[in-house]
Amino acid sequence: MNNMTKKAIVTLLAIAMLVSFAFAGGSKESSDYGDYVKLDTWLVDEPTTVTVLLSDSAMQPIKNYAPAQQEIFKETGIKLEYQVVPFASYDEKKNVLLATNNWPDVAYVRPADVPMYAPVGIFEPLLQYVNEETMPNFYRFWVKYPDMKNFLVDGELYAFPVVARDESANGFGPVIRQDLLEKHGIATPQTFEELLDVLDQLHQLYPDTIPYTGRKGTSQLLKTTSYMLGSGYGQNGLYYDHDLGKYVFGPATQEFKAVLSWLNEAYERGILDPDFATTTAEQMESKLSSGRALFFLDNSGFGVNYTKSLQKIPGYEDAVFQIIPIPENSFGQRRAESYAKDLTDRFYVVNASSKNKEAVIKLIDWLYSDHGSDVSNYGVEGYSFEYNEEGQPEFLLSYLEQFRDASPSSYYAVYEDLGVTKLNFCLYACNTRTWFEIEKALGNWDEVSDEYWNIVNNDKAYVPPKIAPALTTEESERSTDILMELTTVLEQEYNKYIMGIEPIDNWDSVIAHCEELGARELEDIYNTALARSGSI
Amino acid sequence: MEKQHKKLISRTGNALFDIVTYVILTVLGFITLYPMWYILIVSVSSAQHINLGDISFWPRGLNFEAYKIVFENEKIWRAYANTILYTVSGTALQVILTAMCAYPLSRPDFYGRRILSIFTTLTMFISGGMIPLYLVIMNLHMINTIWAIILPPAISTYNMIVMRTSFQAIPHSLAESAYLDGANDIQIFAKIILPLSKAILATMTLFYAVAHWNSFFPAMLYLNDQAKYPVQVLMRDIIISGDMTGDTGDVTGSLNIVATNYKYAVIIISMIPILFVYPFLQKHFTKGVLLGAVKG
Hints:
The complex is a heterodimer of chains A (536) and B (296). In chain A, 42% of the residues lie in helices and 14% in strands. Chain A is an alpha/beta fold. Chain A has 2 domains: 48-166 and 343-441, D-Maltodextrin-Binding Protein, domain 2, CATH 3.40.190; 171-337 and 469-536, 3-Layer(aba) Sandwich (D-Maltodextrin-Binding Protein, domain 2), CATH 3.40.190. Chain A has a 6-stranded mixed β-sheet with strand order 2-1-3-12-4-15. In chain A, strand 7 (238-241) and strand 8 form a beta hairpin. Chain A is globular and about 70 Å long. Mean pLDDT of chain A is 89; it is low at 23-30. Chain B is mainly alpha-helical and 296 residues long. Chain B folds into 2 domains: 2-52; 74-294, Orthogonal Bundle (MetI-like fold). Chain B is built from 14 helices and no strands. Residues 244-257 of chain B have low confidence and may be disordered. The interface between A and B is large, with 66 and 59 residues.
């Protein structure tokens, strides 16, 4: 045998060894639920495995067999097996799995997936189970939130919505360097006009700063400001006007001129970031947490983090970003839309070809129950939480202690360790409630956060968002077509008006053009669907 | 006298040409290297300076915190081991199979060579698409196994054609004389053709290894266990979720945990090993590509 052949054989053997390692690594996890005793609370006769497709984020990685899942098995006899896909790849992977109908018993989906895949027949129709007998716990929410009828697709329910438990909802809001206002004796602005004056004043005092910065370009700028300024933008122009009680295509209204005029004034007075059309989220963060920018109007929750970063820089020890109550717009209104409060944008669908449908439905109903929610949000009684005198779950400080300095935060570390809350498989889910409780228990709760949530919770301007009514397949296709054309035309227009290249009076011609492209038809489609869902 | 003068001019001309060449190459080199250098210095700078945006040529607030976080993350180590496994086994398999496919097609006396070549070339222009490919792999029961990563790309048609061309450059008479000495086809391939083609084999190894090292899409699509993910899937997640914070429309989105220096540290760590492969293969590399290029 010569050298060459020997080498080839050695290489092949090495490959074979490596490959066998790979297989050995993948198969050792399957029996991690250990021994069991059958309890009366079991939902099934024999231990049953239910597989779930989930997405995890870098903030809260999801692992299998966490304490909450162990407890669920102990109490219900159902073994949860998660198939976890990283957040960034979730859409692509989920689309392939659904399109090839090769997915677990249950899958987490986004709202748009339901009408897209439901007509194919891969999702189990759920209305047959929605009654007092089969799903008493879910039925309770079905009656409590009539808005859930908007989730129907062609008259059928295909996805279980995650219901939020005691959620404090913030939203887009104006956040300013409060310390500078106090230092210079400037009063908190009450109107959007005053806001520009205040920012102008700060600009005079700190000429090297950018008074008002944002992120992700013009469309985000319009999303964040339009509703407060008296018109609206929603995600792509179409929005629900709570004052008018109907859907409106914002850019095709006279009120939208007020939005563009205000932004134009901010731009011309040197208040708005000159790079507003191209700034990224990263740049915004870097400008605000280094003291280079003084104000933003976006997810107001960012302020607390910017304050923390800023205070670490010498000379900025007293710097504070704080939200201000929503100022009055030029129409005399104070209005804003909060993030989703009771009904979230997370959904779970059940595989129509699953062998364990019965167990899945029972488990999901159990997760909607108060006790199921306690387990899927607080973990294991006696290990991570205990019931107080009022029968409410409370985290045990002895358990929380180990996560005091965890990264990225104590509460995410707790969520990850226990396998709980909204980002895990949880149907009646806590998010802010447990967050506040954990931070308060560990003494991490500071005055800035306290004041922040006080202002947000007491500001009457916020209303929770309207759940979009279910469209028929035909309506949905037509509205997508119209929106696409409108977006293409409008994207080229906004910056011209914000930067003052076109005078605001010319916006009338843009409105006319929008109407030609079907803006009113789009409004009609949504308002008809809205009326229809109300009458079910 | 005049001759000397001319010589002088041509010498100055040459020098000038050299200077211009060097200047252009330096600028090009700078443009190529600076982004990598920037990622390196940001990964070892402090968050404050990154936010202030005052880092340009040297790291500021030097610290290795980001690397500490990366090294403490066992997920990344496991993914790293997976990447090495997929790259080594995938590349070995690819080089072997590509050579085995290229050699028969390079032989003028191979029956049906023309029609087979046409069929192979066709695959460069027509593919089944993502979902049909997924269904094929699913029905072959390769989902969530290493085979889904290393088998489907086992032969790249383009590389196979380059290799075939390079084999064609070896005189056929060598094989004929080997026949006379009693060698069979496999012996000729293993003992004559392959040893004469080290350059092209090195080139193909590099091409395949780099492609494997950088690939994340098949892994993302065909693997279900996180324990089997290569490092590129994790890296993509770390980098993209940073850009997506605050998008989900709830308070959880307000916490930005993916610091820039952390992201960059992950990029550096996943880039360095494959970067070090180049110098070792470079001497074969230029020669190898040329070999395949001359005879069409």
